[in-house]
């Protein structure tokens, strides 16, 4: 009982310390303006906090430091002005248009924008990083602002920005996934996904359930749509890792091999469900895409007699009809 009381006291003390640091930083910015705050003060925030937390051995110190760094990023992004999403909307539209153009160019190269960005072979690929960073900072603050609003205002703001936020999430999150797996990451959905993506998806799903808002995918536009599931490429990357593990697994590791095959068959089902709903872009079937690379790897591992809706779909090149919007799926 004494231990629980001590833990509760430590947590409360940690929150108080965090609150005081935030108040001091905000007070400094209000008095001087962000442009007048010495950059070294902001940059030293992490170092100072680290020293304090190490000295008193605060639990969850990394979480505290991360929160303070996020505040610093937001302050720099706003540059001393109250954040008004509407004022930056035109700039956001331009950035999104740049990404849309990038997507079209990548498609013309038979690769797809996800894989073009992941490979980072050209200057154009690297230029996308700047657009992605700007858009991400913007939408992180929009989400944070929405979360701070009273519930009544929250409903209005969510409906107001939901379409743009959903388009952003479906366009930009695949780029974050590309960064994540380029750095040899794994389990993106459970360990690597940003909070603001989770909230944007959650709000969309809540509004769809209440029939206030819905983004419909039309099969005649499947050639140009963004894939509904913004985590689609994370599932593809995981499936490729499973193929690699299955290929290298010792023959005697029966249970592990069975588990991997089961995961891959579940991935087949997931992909086919997306296809049936016309919820996935036809770009995934471009010959240079990671999805088609997965298929080549997977086809070498499955039994010759293995048959499923997805294997039939790919082997018989039905994705060509899918792209044109004239495929009838049962």
TrEMBL record:
InterPro entries hit by this protein: EDS1_EP, SAG101-like
Q: Which GO terms describe its biological process?
A: defense response
Q: Name one Pfam family in it.
A: EDS1_EP
Q: Which domain of life is it from?
A: Eukaryota
Supply one GO molecular-function term.
Answer: carboxylic ester hydrolase activity
Q: Which residues form the EDS1 EP domain?
A: 97-313
Q: What is this protein called?
A: EDS1 EP domain-containing protein
